[in-house]
Amino acid sequence: MGFERYLASVLIVIMLSFITSSQGYKFYVGGRDGWVVSPSENYNHWAERNRFQVNDTLFFKYKKGSDSVLLVTREDYFSCNTKNPIQSLTEGDSLFTFDRSGPFFFITGNADNCKKGQKLIVVVMAVRHKPQQQPPSPSPSSAVTTAPVSPPTLPIPETNPPVVSPKSSEAPSDAVEPAPPEHRSGSFKLVCSTWLVLGFGIWVSMALGLENVVCFLVLNY
């Protein structure tokens, strides 16, 4: 039971702190004295003890018609010039919310009271944004882009015409060679034999004087 109460109180504190941080903090200028000519603490000393952020609010306590609060430039602040205010608060118990960071200059609407010290400088702190996490830088190996690999180029076959070997002057091995001319040895032998017989016959006829034999041989030839 005690743990549940502790947990509930922690959650309430967290919620209140979240609401306060989102809506800003309300500061009472001058404390119990309010917005007067001679506060118990100098307004600028009071401002230096505090830290102001965007969305914080200043509460100026005064009676309506008896005083006012003017938001002015730096030059008008030091010169207590009340004629050209940036913003005028005259309704009494005025509230002013910081909408930006940087310095803000406030003076009273009474120039004499401003010269006596009824003025305030508030410096609002700059808004701190959470640093954004940057993506990790790519490593050198991954940063190198891979060039597209082109398909291998196939060699183009040569289209040279087939080489025709010159015709050989020699005849093919299986060609039939012409038969050599026949020698007419038989006719030559026949002629020789005939002339031998004829010569022999003439010799016989001359020797024997037989004309009949010669005629026989001539006729047979």
TrEMBL record:
Region (Disordered): 131-186
Biased composition range(s): Pro residues: 149-164
Coiled-coil residues: none
Keywords: Cell membrane, Disulfide bond, Glycoprotein, GPI-anchor, Lipoprotein, Membrane, Signal, Transmembrane, Transmembrane helix
Membrane-topology annotation of the record: Lipid-anchor; GPI-anchor
Keyword Membrane attached: yes
Any one GO cellular component localisation term in the record: plasma membrane
Database matches in InterPro entries: Cupredoxin, ENL_dom, Phytocyanin-like, Phytocyanin_dom
Recorded GO MF terms: electron transfer activity
Pfam family membership, one: Cu_bind_like
Leader sequence residues: 1-24
Family the entry assigns: Belongs to the early nodulin-like (ENODL) family.
Protein name per Swiss-Prot or TrEMBL: Phytocyanin domain-containing protein
Organism (species): Gossypium stocksii
